[in-house]
Amino acid sequence: QISLCFGFVVMVSVQALGHVSGGNLNPAVTCGLLITGRITIIRAALYIAAQCLGAIGGAAMAKFFTPEDKVGDLGATLLNPSITPGQGVAIEFMLGFVLVFVIFGVIDPNKPDAKIVAPLAIGLTVAVGHLSCIDSTGSSMNPARSLGSVAMINKWDNHWVYWVGPCMGGIVAAILYQFVLSAPPQEYSQVPGESSTEMKRLGKGNENSNA
């Protein structure tokens, strides 16, 4: 239930705010966009500052409205005692990599059809990632999200793991997609309501009829 809740919140946020800032809710995503030249360093710095302030503010509100006997660790992402910091970095690297790879896939300008399902794809990725690794690292995927909780409970042990792992994973995923696996330009101009596959099929049909 918690995993689905996380995924649903991200999905709705991307759908609602994507037109404002591109739905930049995560420093790992922002790092990926920066390293591939999609945003400037100034814009990236402003995004990350806003993300961190928003996360701290959200965590403060959650703590304020939660009964004192139920606050606990306020959902902080903490390493399982059986997980070393190195393993934690590797797990969060993987989670950040998958998330940013999916995001770059659905915002690819040469795949316009993918934008329709972008919020759903991103939300499901967050939900599955959270479900798969919550017992190991708390499944952060988002350094700002981790910052908000630990700032409220003042428990900073291994917090660096949740910055290094997702951000490095996001950077590698962004570079791999942008320069190796991005979709090629469409061969035919697209009419609204027609998919690129349909346009290619129609184009081939015209070539055959002309022959």
Describe the structure.
Its main location: membrane. Residues 1-22 form the signal peptide. This protein is mainly alpha-helical. The protein has one domain (2-210): Glycerol uptake facilitator protein (Up-down Bundle). The chain has eight helices and no strands. It has helices at 2-21, 27-35, 41-65, 85-106, 118-137, 143-153, 161-181, 196-210. Helix 2 (27-35) runs antiparallel to helix 3 (41-65).
What would a concise description of this structure say?
With 211 residues, this protein is mainly alpha-helical. The chain is 68% helix and 0% strand.
Q: Give me the CATH architecture, please.
A: Up-down Bundle
Uncertain stretches: 194-211
The number of strands is 0
What is the overall number of helices? Answer: 8
Largest sheet: none
Q: How much strand?
A: under 5%
Query: How many domains make up the coordinates?
Result: 1
Portion of residues in helices?
A: 55-70%
Mean pLDDT comes to 85
Subcellular location: Membrane
Family: Belongs to the MIP/aquaporin (TC 1.A.8) family.
Signal peptide: 1-22
Membrane topology: Multi-pass membrane protein
